[in-house]
Amino acid sequence: MKHMRRIGIITAGGDSPGLNAAIRGVGKAALSHEDMEVIAFRDGFRGLAQDLRLRLDKKALAGILTVGGTILGTSRDKPHRMEINGQRRDMTDAIVATYKRHKLHALVCIGGGGTHKNSMRLMERGLNIVTLPKTIDNDVALTDATIGFDTALGIATEAIDRLHSTAHSHHRIIIAEIMGHRAGWLALGAGIAGGADVILIPEIAYDVKKVAAAIRRRSNLGSNFSIVAVAEGARSVEDAAEFAAAESRKKRANSGDAKKHAKADLAALEARHAGNTLRLAKQLEELTHLEARVSILGYVQRGGTPSAGDRLLATRLATKCVELIDENVFGVMVAARGDSTKPVPIAEVAGKLKTVQTDHPWIESARRVGTSFGN
Ligand code: F6P
User: Fold this and answer.
1) Where does ligand 1 bind, in terms of residues with CB under 6 Å?
2) 204 CA distance to ligand 1 centroid (A)?
3) Which has the least CB within 10 A, 24, 189, 210, 375?
4) Bridge-partner residues for 53, per DSSP?
5) Is 57 a catalytic residue?
6) Per-domain residue ranges for the chain?
7) CATH number given to 5-147+306-348
8) Residue 234 in contact with residue 176, Cβ under 8 Å?
9) What confidence tens digit (pLDDT) does each residue in 283-332 have?
10) Tens digits of per-residue pLDDT, 238-296?
11) Substitution site in 179, 186, 297 for ligand 1 pocket (most atoms within 8 Å of beta carbon)
12) Distance between alpha carbon 62 and the CA centroid of its chain, in Å?
């Protein structure tokens, strides 16, 4: 009997459009090898810990290319800290046991920052892992693009387009809050594509007075409405200083107690920051005497049909992933590089964040068309 190479696959972290295209790409490319088969596990690392499986045969792979979300389900569960029956447990051993029980040849983990850290931990326990970068935030290190970003960019841009006409009619400031976690890619991209007058991103701390001045300048020139594209992680100069101080306290904490306090301080700061966009609207109303409204785009950005760009990217990365597994290349993420792909060590990706460089060409272009970054 022929020895079968069995490949496990999971999707982990926040979902994003294009995940099913990636699952299909891995599945179809693997099944084109006579000696490969694929077992999918449900709900990210939880499915591995609890051995929750889904058969990925030809039938399961049919018709999913255009479908949003992930047919496997996903979760933010971490192998080493998983809630099981109301208790936090280290499930790493259980995951290793599942991998061995099914005699997996390799495991494909499709995910973002958290998934890469978790994959690293499992690699250290001897698992053969290949990852694919996905997140609408586009913040995974060493890849040009991540699966999901292009679709979210389209959705956020369309939202800004629509906000323009109502802002114009009512002579208002409309602030569109855009996802992206700690990176500004989505707000920057959609802000440029949608022609936002102000773009605020985490990488450039803003001065609210300068934002107001940019809006007043527009009013003085006859445009008494403005669109502000604000990344959910954008911070004012004052908030950025507070966060930096809290983060440095956390880094310097050298006892268990000090670490706990520093972590709690940071969490409290994050919680306070959660309503930041609404606060910004109030501040801008006071400073400009224009009415301001907020539109939080939220999860709409992650939902629905993947764009052609994301389907293409997912298929390119997924098929390369199977080629690498076939060649016994493990411990790598399949990165997008121009029209091509490149395997990069997961060790070099895990724990790193790809943020927007302040001299990035997109920022240069935005400034040249008169966009304010509030600095
Ligand atoms: O990472 C994708 C993302 O949508 C971020 O933009 C956002 O901050 C976060 O996930 C929301 O996470 P959750 O789905 O856990 O609420």
Assistant:
1) 14, 76, 112, 135-137, 179-181, 232, 302
2) 21
3) 375
4) 41
5) no
6) 5-147+306-348, 152-302
7) 3.40.50.450
8) no
9) 999 999 999 999 999 999 999 999 999 999 999 999 999 999 999 999 99
10) 999 999 999 999 989 988 898 899 899 999 999 988 899 999 999 999 999 999 999 99
11) 179
12) 26
